Amino acid sequence: MENNNYQQLTRTFQRLSRFSHLSSIASWDMFTMMPPGGSAARGEALAELSVLQHQILTDKKVGEWLDAAQSENLNDVEQANLREMQRHYQQASLLPEALVEAKSLAGSKCEHAWRTQRPANDWQGFSANLKEVVKLSREEARLRAEAKGCTPYDALLDIFEPDMTSARLDVLFADLKSWLPQLLAQVVEKQAQQSFVPPQGPFPIATQRELGLETMTMLGFDFNGGRLDVSAHPFCGGVPEDVRITTRYDEEDLLSALFGVVHETGHARYEQNLPRTWQGQPVALARSTAIHESQSLFFEMQLGRSNAFLKKLLPAVHQRFGSQAAFSEENFIAWNQRVKPGYIRVDADEVSYPAHVVLRYEIERALINGDIEVDDIPALWDEKMQAWLGLSTKDNYRNGCMQDIHWTDGGFGYFPSYTLGAMYAAQLFHAARNALPGLDSAIAEGDFSALFDWLRQNIWQHGSRFSTSQLIQQATGEDLNSAYFRQHLTSRYL
Amino acid sequence: MENNNYQQLTRTFQRLSRFSHLSSIASWDMFTMMPPGGSAARGEALAELSVLQHQILTDKKVGEWLDAAQSENLNDVEQANLREMQRHYQQASLLPEALVEAKSLAGSKCEHAWRTQRPANDWQGFSANLKEVVKLSREEARLRAEAKGCTPYDALLDIFEPDMTSARLDVLFADLKSWLPQLLAQVVEKQAQQSFVPPQGPFPIATQRELGLETMTMLGFDFNGGRLDVSAHPFCGGVPEDVRITTRYDEEDLLSALFGVVHETGHARYEQNLPRTWQGQPVALARSTAIHESQSLFFEMQLGRSNAFLKKLLPAVHQRFGSQAAFSEENFIAWNQRVKPGYIRVDADEVSYPAHVVLRYEIERALINGDIEVDDIPALWDEKMQAWLGLSTKDNYRNGCMQDIHWTDGGFGYFPSYTLGAMYAAQLFHAARNALPGLDSAIAEGDFSALFDWLRQNIWQHGSRFSTSQLIQQATGEDLNSAYFRQHLTSRYL
């Protein structure tokens, strides 16, 4: 056979994909269904599978097949698939097993202790564990950087955003910093003149769930291949054939669960529309975390919080929760477009969100590259928070650098994806509007089919066939830049 | 190390146990949570894992370790564990992979077609598929019988009930046949004099679920390590640390879901109380399908449908569903102890149930041993059904030999477990009553703790440490016999 090595690889990766299926479903179950007593056994079972997956992926034969397949006769998609296989193989085989295990243990320890350290504002205790995590992450970054020939931080960035560099991020984020703080200040000043009527609960959870399901249906979620459930931290999990999204309900707060559902539905539709013909192969997977985030923010921010969409959503809200003053058209829109800079990233609106991300990016880059130490974090956090949002986090670790768990497991390099996603989303929405005459009036009529078809054609169906740059250039005619995000924020909020 | 081979085995079986964990949870999910679109991918993922498990278990090294471990210095529990390892290894390694695969395919095909063939009463279509299943099961039985030196049917029986033989079953069932048909006739005649008030629905499903949960709590189910959900066919799944039971609700029928829950809670408490110190090892697994069934029938029939338990249950029923005439104490007891011989096994009461089992046992034994052919089944079924229950199934395949799916996947040898379980349950309850003075009054007061402690001491905590015979002799002072089952039925129904 002329592409015998490539065929061996596709069989191996299909097998890995099937094991990933089981791992995804068991993880989803862990966060949604599992009673506490199942935790230890589940952790051991998942770890055992993870060891197996690592062994299969890093087998010497896989490396040999990858080398030999380079000279086989492969079509475009197969070449893209081979490139992705190579990437997965290299990422997995670069690290010695002892380091992977040590990192996993240090991460679990740090995250577990964080649960009580955060409420106690215990920076001393937390930083001791974090130092171990950072030490191991630096070692990981060093090994990856040596192989790739780049800086340590860029080597971690590449795991989440292939081909993204901090040089490029610096340009993109410098641009953001040149206009966003002023825009934010203007929006805050403008909104200070407005009056808002907050929605009055309670909003029964069963009814909130119905509204969420109806909204998912409006947004084209395929319930034949997915579910909506509850978890402490909302996520989109499962597998492309069976996508599991979650939300969390608060009886006093209707909109956080609802827009959480809209956000996760964006992730879900990407997964549900990944190419089925290459099923089980790396080329059929989502392109990157930033492109994934761009889809959820496209749904939540570009579409979901637009005036037109909010108007279409309102009758369903009235039908279930009556027509209190907060649910007048004007107030409903205004309330969903409030901008309120605050300490907590996950509660942030889309105007102040980038502040949280750029702040963390700058700190984690310096940390991984060895320019600062863990002990330097609180002062830097306070300084940057003051500069961006005028908020002090001095001695307030729990609402500062201890507010979330992204760093506890060594997930350095992930944070930029959030703001890259917001910029991609704005650029994609702009391109869709150019490509689709009458889009705005279609949306106002509740017809999103052309918009979703455009996403399917331009993003979803390609999986990982193209690089992120190619993908975005083909879809929008240019590479990523922040102009459309600025344009979007200006037109919506000023 | 003095027991190095044994240690290798324990590591291998622990690994297998972790993979079984994932397989159990993914299977549970398939029956309770999974949307239809996930079906094909899930099937492939589970099959891939099953191939892996088979490879690990039948690895040549496992055979070598098993041989070498025989002469190592092992304590009692380790020896029992080694015996169980040996049993798993032999069962798995006896069959060529091609036969396992062919059987799995033929079973899926037969079961899938059955779903439309049963409503259409299509025996011709069904029997064509069943012939293939029987052919492959006979081949399996032949291979197992050769290795074990027994008849083909006994070799299949041994998978579910280690050490049980058809010679022994013939004695036990001949005894049943000597008294049960007459007892059944007497009960039917006696109950014909009684009047019953059927409960009037609708009984809202959410309230039925609450009652089920309260009943599980009464029965000691540990919700820290388990759940109650819904599936088309009720089952007890999951893992000992996280036991997942299911039921199905009918708005018009309160009691079928409720007693389904009681039944599955019996299975669940066995699983939840298996020995944790040997976790992940074969010796920590449940003894056999008949012992498992004995625990569910102990809960459902011995305890659950007793006058004392029904009286304790009634206030919870009143609290949720009011006090209609059917819920008078007298009628509630009578209704839950009705005996109504019918065509369908899964709807049968405990007096007529053995008829369904013995009938199938006699047919499947003859079929596997080659004494009859698939074409002979309907006539035999009709003849035996007439003899036991006075019901004709001539041309009524859908309520005769096509009523359930036990045979479609080649599960021959399983059926006897149901009636063995009923006999074990009666014998165990009798022994518990002897061992625990004041048991009846404790039950009447709703205090089941002594009873459950007795089960824990005598059955649950032993896992597979002893053979079924040893286990039952230690618990009751004698080997299995049908006297206590007869005594139980006589005292409850005559």
TrEMBL record, chains A, B:
Q: Which Gene3D superfamilies match?
A: 1.10.1370.30
Q: According to the UniProt entry, what is the EC number of this protein?
A: 3.4.17.19
Keywords (alphabetical) are: Carboxypeptidase, Hydrolase, Metal-binding, Metalloprotease, Protease
Q: What class of enzyme is it?
A: hydrolase
Keyword Metal-binding annotated = yes
Keyword Lyase belongs to the record? no
Concerning PROSITE patterns, the annotation shows: PEPTIDASE_M32
CDD domains according to UniProt: M32_Taq (cd06460)
**InterPro entries cross-referenced by the UniProt entry:** Peptidase_M32_Taq
Give the highest taxon in the source lineage.
Bacteria
Which reaction equations make up its catalytic activity? Release of a C-terminal amino acid with broad specificity, except for -Pro
Question: SUPFAM superfamilies recorded for this chain?
Answer: Metalloproteases ('zincins'), catalytic domain (SSF55486)
Q: Which GO terms describe its molecular function?
A: carboxypeptidase activity
Q: What does the similarity note say? A: Belongs to the peptidase M32 family.
* Known function: Broad specificity carboxypetidase that releases amino acids sequentially from the C-terminus, including neutral, aromatic, polar and basic residues.
- The identity of this protein, by name, is Metal-dependent carboxypeptidase
Q: Which organism is it from?
A: Leclercia pneumoniae
